[in-house]
Structures are given as structure tokens and as C-alpha cells.
Write a structure and sequence with these properties.
Blueprint: E1 2-6, H1 11-28, E2 33-37, H2 49-58, E3 62-64, H3 75-81, E4 85-86, E5 100-104, E6 110-117, H4 128-136, E7 147-153, H5 157-166, E8 173-177, E9 187-188, E10 194-196, H6 213-221, E11 238-245, E12 252-260
Parallel strand pairs: 1-2, 2-3, 3-4, 6-7, 7-8, 8-10
Antiparallel strand pairs: 1-11, 5-6, 9-10, 11-12
Helix pairs in contact: 1-2
The structure holds fe (ii) ion (2 copies).
Length: about 270
């Protein structure tokens, strides 16, 4: 299977870049599955239902969220009707929505997509390691599912690496989100799981992690109550990870970063 994961969409710049590129990438890369993190799509904070609809229409199969899941409150009702939209699976029991979804593809293959959220330097949540282990106990890569994609939404590199190694050989791709900067550690782990600590964002890199650099810097110099950040609005760099899996085992045989447009040095597949 040929799978593309795109990192956190930040604001209009990110939304426009993804909407423009996805139909073309689906064709040119012959993608079977596209997963996009969209937690910052709505002006940097959350995701509006209409934006989720537009991303599905543009070619996303599954959308993931993160700590900004409920910044747009309308999404609480929407997520209960839309199984292709995921929030972290280790949110407290009773939280609306799901943290994983089984996707049946037109080619007859079945993929499991999940999102977990880290706990280091993040808001409190249940254990992402145990929650993922419990879910993977119900699905076996290469037997009941043809691919497993995990979005580990976390601040700390160490937690993301520990997570990936914990599930090496049981997940096709573990990819980090949340820091908005792509890391250069793209690799296939010894057990066959493709990994990159952070996918990077789909947003304007003339910014502080996607937000207007002047206002973001000012927050470090002084705190003025009520000041709200806005996304930077220059051309976005599309950032993601491409993985190709073995048809029999579901493990990774090829992994590569994707970066195009905007300010970052490019990486093509
Ligand atoms: Fe984010
Ligand atoms: Fe986040």
C-alpha cells in the first residue's frame, strides 16, 4: 500500500496548500490512503466542520486532531457523526468521538488508523502506551489489517521514540505531530515500522510554529491579557511522510519525507 501522512494544517495557508496539492498527489504518488492532521486548520485553533468536509472532498481519507480537538466546539457534534475524524484515543472514557478507525479501501485492503497523545509537557490524559497496546490487541498487522498508521501527537521527542519502539513490527507507520517542525530521522525501525519523530506542519514557516511571528515573539517578551495569536498567511510548505508497505506483512518497505512549496528546503518522493 502507498500511504501519505500530512502534518498539522495551520490556518488558511495550510488549508489552501493541502486542498490544492492533494488531488494531484493522490494521482502522481498512486496513493491508497491519505491521513491528515487538521487540529490547527481553523485560524490555528481547532477544525470547523465545513473545513473537515472540504478536506475529505480534496482527498483525505482520515483526519486527526490533537490537544486542539475541541477549540471549535461545533466539532463535538460533528465527530460523533463522522468516524473518519479522530481525536486521541487516550482521552478520558466518555469523550465524544473515536481514537481509531478501520478504513476499507476500494482495492479491498483494510487499514487501521489511530491517534494517541503524549503526556510529557502536555495537558493530562490517560496512558497513550497502554491505550495503544489495548487497541492493537484487537488487530493484527498482516492478518486482520493490511496497514496500521499511528499519529503520536506529543511534545517530547523521547516519548515519541519510546512509543515507536514499543510498537515496532506491529504498526506500518508511526509519525509524530504537534511540534510543527519536520525532523530528519525518517527511518524504518528494526522490526519494520516506518518512523519520523514529527511530520512538520502544512503552514507558513515564516512564523513561530505557524503563527504570526511578531505576536508570538511578543508573548515571550511580555504578557498582555487578551492578546490572541493569528496564523501567518504566507505561502505554506506542505510537510508529510510517505510510506510504502509490503502487501503480505503490512510492514514498511520504503519511507520518505515530503516537503513542497513555501520556505523549507524541498523533499520530493
Ligand atoms: Fe498542531
Ligand atoms: Fe497539538
Amino acid at each position: 500500500m502507498r500511504i501519505l501522512f500530512l502534518g498539522d494544517i495551520v490556518g488558511r495557508a495550510g488549508r489552501d496548500a493541502v486542498a490544492a496539492a492533494l488531488p494531484r498527489l493522490r494521482q502522481s504518488l498512486k496513493l491508497d490512503l491519505v491521513v491528515v492532521n487538521a487540529e490547527n486548520a481553523s485560524h490555528g485553533f481547532g477544525l470547523a466542520p465545513a473545513m473537515a468536509d472540504a478536506l475529505f472532498a480534496a482527498g483525505a481519507d482520515v483526519l486527526t486532531l490533537g490537544n486542539h480537538a475541541w477549540d471549535r466546539k461545533e466539532l463535538v457534534g460533528y465527530i460523533e457523526r463522522e468516524p473518519r475524524l479522530l481525536r486521541p484515543l487516550n482521552f478520558a472514557p466518555g469523550t465524544p468521538g473515536q481514537g481509531s478507525v478501520l478504513v476499507d479501501l476500494p482495492n479491498g485492503k483494510r487499514a487501521l488508523v489511530l491517534q494517541a497523545m503524549g503526556r510529557l509537557f502536555m495537558e493530562p490524559s490517560d496512558d497513550p502506551f497502554r491505550a495503544t497496546a489495548e487497541l492493537l490487541g484487537k488487530h493484527r498487522l498482516g492478518t486482520t489489517v493490511d496497514a496500521v498508521i499511528a499519529d503520536i501527537h506529543a511534545e517530547a521527542t523521547s516519548e515519541k521514540m519510546a512509543y515507536a519502539h514499543s510498537f515496532d513490527g506491529r504498526i506500518s507507520l508511526v509519525v509524530g505531530t504537534h511540534t510543527h517542525v519536520p525532523t530528519a530521522d525518517t527511518q524504518i525501525l528494526p522490526g519494520g515500522t516506518a518512523y519520523q519523530t514529527d511530520a512538520g506542519m502544512c503552514g507558513d514557516y515564516n512564523s513561530v510554529i505557524g503563527m504570526d511571528k511578531g505576536a508570538a515573539a511578543a508573548k515571550f517578551w511580555r504578557r498582555i491579557p487578551g492578546e490572541r495569536l493569528a496564523p501567518a498567511d504566507g505561502e505554506a510548505t506542505l510537510c508529510g511522510v510517505f510510506v510504502e508497505t509490503d502487501a503480505r506483512t503490512g510492514l514498511a518497505v520504503n519511507v520518505a519525507p515530503l516537503r513542497e512549496g513555501g520556505r523549507l528546503a524541498g523533499a520530493t518522493i
